[in-house]
Design a protein that fits this description.
Blueprint lengths: L1 H20 L15 E11 L12 E12 L6 E15 L2 E6 L2 E6 L8 E18 L9 E21 L2 E6 L6 E11 L2 E8 L19 E11 L1
Antiparallel strand pairs: 1-2, 1-11, 2-3, 3-6, 4-5, 6-7, 7-8, 7-9, 9-10, 10-11
């Protein structure tokens, strides 16, 4: 994970510096657009965990995509952003999932169980919708931004993976809820921006329960940094 984090970070900063250099000696443009591409990394939390379920290791997310900037006023500092992107999210816990006669059975691993990793991994197509405010203009690339809105996601692949000293296993988990949606908030200055996503949908389908019959109603909360480019 550390390797991927730094690759994303270095790539985003390089693109940001390139876009700023391209603005040296700018020409006034009354039809300028801002922040049309994004890259981000997040730390992923799970809310509403059942008793006995805890997070382990570093649960992370990586996202990127394009945004259509739609200014709504003459100053072009207020508007909408409609985007299309991809996201990879991993959630490391002590939740063990296994296939039994075509069903998925969940249990909580004890602290003395000999295992290295147990995770849920999702790959999503995302559709962010932002209400955008910024104090930018056609010749200034360093500005404050406050973007808030929602995000709709479709999980096209979701897997449960387990790694222990004795071996590893994994399978496409049908209990992972395909349609995801939630609220997001992005705020920052220049390159560095804080990103928060709060899911309104559950990560697993309604019928997912532990072997104790306790429902698994976990919802993701993702906090990280996002870079807007061009």
């Amino acid at each position: 994970m550390t390797k991927y984090f730094f690759l994303i970070l270095i790539g985003a900063l390089s693109l940001q510096c390139w876009s700023q250099e391209a603005l040296v000696g700018p020409v006034e443009d009354n039809a300028y657009l801002e922040d049309q591409f994004y890259l981000g990394v997040t730390y992923n939390l799970l809310l509403n965990k059942p008793e006995g379920i805890t997070q382990r290791n570093l649960s992370y997310g990586i996202m990127g995509g394009i945004i259509k900037d739609i200014p709504l006023n003459d100053e072009r500092n207020f508007g909408l952003g409609i985007g299309l992107g991809y996201a990879l999210n991993s959630y490391y816990t002590n939740l063990f999932a296994e296939e039994v006669n075509g069903d998925v059975v969940y249990s909580a691993l004890a602290s003395n169980d000999n295992f290295k990793r147990s995770k849920l991994e999702t790959h999503l197509i995302e559709l962010p919708l932002e209400i955008r405010w910024r104090n930018s203009n056609a010749t200034e690339y360093k500005f404050w931004r406050v973007y808030a809105g929602g995000k709709l996601g479709y999980i096209f692949e979701g897997r449960s993976k387990f790694v222990a000293d004795s071996g590893k296993s994994g399978f496409n988990n049908p209990d992972i809820k395909k349609l995801q949606y939630g609220l997001m908030f992005n705020v920052g200055y220049n390159t560095w921006n804080i990103h928060v996503y709060y899911a309104l949908s559950k990560l697993l389908e309604d019928g997912a329960v532990l072997d104790t019959m306790e429902p698994i109603d976990v919802k993701p909360l993702r906090i990280g940094i996002i870079f807007y480019i061009l």
